Amino acid sequence: MSRSDWHKKADTKEATFDGDYFHSCPPSPSCATCTGLQTAQYDWSVIDAAYCISLQEREDRAQSVATQFHRVGLCRLVRFYRPNRHPEAPIAGIWESHRTVLADALRRGYDTVLVMEDDVKFVRWYGPRMSRLVMKVARSLPERWQIFYLGHWPLKMRFLSLNLVKTHSACTHAYIANTSLMRLMADQPYGSVKLASLIGKGVDAYYATLDQTYAFFPMVAIQNATASDHVLAHRRGRIRKLSHLITRTRSRELLLSSLMRPAELLAAFTAAVARLGAVFRRNQCEITPT
Predict the structure, then answer these.
(1) What distance in Å separates the CA atoms of residue 39 and residue 46, rounded to the nearest whole number?
(2) pTM of the model
(3) Which are the contacts of 9, defined by CB distance < 8 A and separation ≥ 6?
(4) Is the sign of the CA dihedral 173, 19, 228, 248 positive or negative?
(5) Can you give the pLDDT at residue 224?
């Protein structure tokens, strides 16, 4: 399908003042959800809506990720947000894009929304049964939760149950947000928060500082290995530095895609060892004579 044909299948664009716009996910005649043949196969009952951020110039990624949404039953829930590229700093553009979709959700009165970037990739084993488990875990979140990651790069995590971890994480390609985060981001334009982080100064670095962030274990959404917008911006004339070999070349996407799962397993192992160590120390204190 050509780019123009793909756009014609979407609903009328909802344009913003700066040339950005929203549109629905174009229907597919082969999609059981679009045709209404299997409306209840996948469970997304916790969320009121879903958003996918995709640059206007990256129609290739918008079309590719739409196939993911048809596969996992999200197509009727997703609103694509199509911003223009930030003229100076992609990292600022990404931050403001997340603010925009969260503000739109707040304006529409949504309580809980799924936010995704156009490089999200749901794992092959994410089926109807797993979707019901994810929603069950989401309903068990503590009252003050702000973020529930479906995919992430865990920096530090602690198990609360078999499938739920409390975490500080990088990456924002797939997370569920509530009104607490929506209101918080409404007051945080890019540059308003001073971040001193090894993972940069982007929106994920800010999210990693929050205290009420959780994740489903094991993650059900990773990032694919297509060239990122950071890489393309860098190739458009920016100075190449050795220190940016990973962060601004295709190596970044390959590493994120292939090492996200090992990073999760390493964090899980570290959390398990820490938990066993705490239990051992507590037992030692109980049996030590006074």
Answers:
(1) 16
(2) 0.85
(3) 26, 27
(4) negative
(5) 87
